[in-house]
Design brief:
Strand content: 5-15%
Bound molecules: zinc ion
Radius of gyration: 25 Å
Distance between the termini: 65 Å
Shape: globular
Structural class: alpha+beta
Number of helices: 17
Amino acid sequence: MSAGLRSYMPFARRGDCGGSERRSRGYRECMISRYHLKCPGCEEVFVARLGVEPTNGTRFYLPCPHCRLPIRGFMQGTELENHRINIECEVMNGADPELPGALVVTINPFVPSLYEADSFTPSGAFPTLTLVQILGQDAFTEFESERHQALDAGRLQWPRVRMLFQYYLQGNAKMFTRIATEQFGLDWEPTQAHQRTSIAYQAMGTVTTTIAGTTGNRSATVIDRFARKHTAAMQRHKEHLVAFRARGKQSAALERDLFTELNRFVEQHESWEMGLLVRFVGQAEQAKFEDLVLYRDEFSTVRDLYQQGFELACKCIWPLVAAQNTVKRGSPDDFGNDHPVTVPANKQARSLAQYDKLPNAYKIAYAAQVPGWESLGELLNNKHRNTIGHATAHHDLQTGRIVSDTDPTGMTYLDFLGHTLGVFDALSTLAQVLRACRVAASPDFGVA
Ligand SMILES: [Zn+2]
C-alpha cells in the first residue's frame, strides 16, 4: 500500500475559504474533485468523485466499488495554500485521464451522498443537488443558512465566549469586565458576582443556541417554563432557596464540567454538525435518506462526546424537578404522587437526594412528564443511548450504519450525528437552567 500520497487541490474560489466572516453561498457545490484511485486490495482502478470543503481535519472513507474494501482518508486545511488530502491508496491522477469504462463512485464526507451517483445523472451531479431534490428548495435554503450560522458561531464567536467564561470561572472580575466590554460591547460595569454570572451565561447561550439551530428546536420553551416556575418558587417558598443554596458547591462543580463539555463539543463541531440535517427530514423524506451515506470515519470521537454529554446532562436535570415540586407542592423534595409510569414503585423518588441516585432513564422521565419539557425526553433518548453506548457498538463501513449485537439494524450515521446534536442541545438548554442555580447560590445574596 502506498499510503501518504498527497495531492493539493484548489478551492473553487479562493476568497471563499475560511478567514472571512461572510462566506458566499454555493462554493461547496463547486468542490468536487475527480481522482483515479487504485484499490490497495484488489488493485482495480476506479474514479472517485470526492467532495471537498474547508476543514480543520476530517477523517473519511470510501469503499472500493470492486471489492468493497473501505479505503481511508484524511483532509485538512481551511485555506488554499495549506489544504491537503491523504488517501490510503495509490492516486493515479493524470496517468490516464479518460479511463473509459471505469466505475465511478461519489464520496462526500460533508454531505450525505449517493455512492453510485456520477456526473451524468442530474440528481447526483453534486451531493447538494441530491439534498435539494429530497428536501425541496426552501427547506434546503433554510438548512444551509442555519448550518453556516452554526459553523460561523463555533469558529468565530466561541473563542471569545470561551475566554470570557474562563475569566468568569477563575473569578477574575477585572479581566472579565475588560473582555465583556471590549469583545461583547458591554457598556456598564458588573460589580456583583451574580451580574457576571448572568453575562457569562448569556454570552455562552447566544453561541450554543445558534449552534443547536432553530428548526425543530424547543429549548426556549423548556427554559421559559423553568424560569417561570423557578421565580414563583423563589418568591413563595423559602425551602426552595435553601435547597439551591445547599447545592451551591455541587452546582459550581457542574458549571465547570458543563463548560468543559460544551467546549469539547464546539471544538469537535465539524465531526457532528451534519446532525442538523436530521431536523429537516420529515417522515416522507426519511426513506430517501436511507440510501444516502455520510462518509465520515470519526465514530469513536463522536461517541465519546455523545456519551459524556448524555451523562452530564442527566446530572443537570434536578433544578427542573425541584422547581416543579415546589410550585406544585411547596417543597423541592416533595414528589407527591407525580411519578412517571416508566418508574417502578420501588424506584420512585421521595426526596431530591433520592432522585440524584436514580438511573438516568428515570431522572429524565421525571422532567419529561412535565408539559413543556417533553423535548428533553427526545433529546436524551435512552433507547438510542443504549445502542450507541453498547460495548459492541461500531460503525459498519459496508452499510454506513451504527450497529451493535443487541441492535443489528441500528441507525444511519447521519441519525447518530442527529442524536449527538440532541445531546448538545440538551446541554445548551440545561446550562441556562444551571445559571439560575448559580445566581440563587451567589454570595451577593447573603451567606450560603
Ligand atoms: Zn478493491
